Amino acid sequence: MKCLVKWLMKKLPVHQEKAKEIMEQSDKNRITIARYKDINRELQVVIEQNHVAKHLIYDKGDNHASH
Questions:
Q1: Which residues contact 5 (CB under 8 A, 6 or more apart)?
Q2: Which of 20, 29, 43, 66 has the fewest CB atoms in 10 Å of its CB?
Q3: How far, in Å, CA of 8 to CA of 64, rounded?
Q4: For 38, how many CA atoms within 13 A lie in the half-sphere containing its CB?
Q5: pLDDT tens across 4-16, in order?
């Protein structure tokens, strides 16, 4: 995606600011997702260490998009 944005910036200087915004937002989204994954892993470890997991009902699959 970054290569495409860089190419657009060279070809269409009028859209440089918008391309920069898109790149920055893309980076922010990537960081947010990484943080979420880290927190999720940490939470799973704490739940398992405190032996709470057997009392929880949760979906281990990746079918959240269907909700």
A1: 19, 22, 23
A2: 66
A3: 34
A4: 6
A5: 777 776 777 667 7
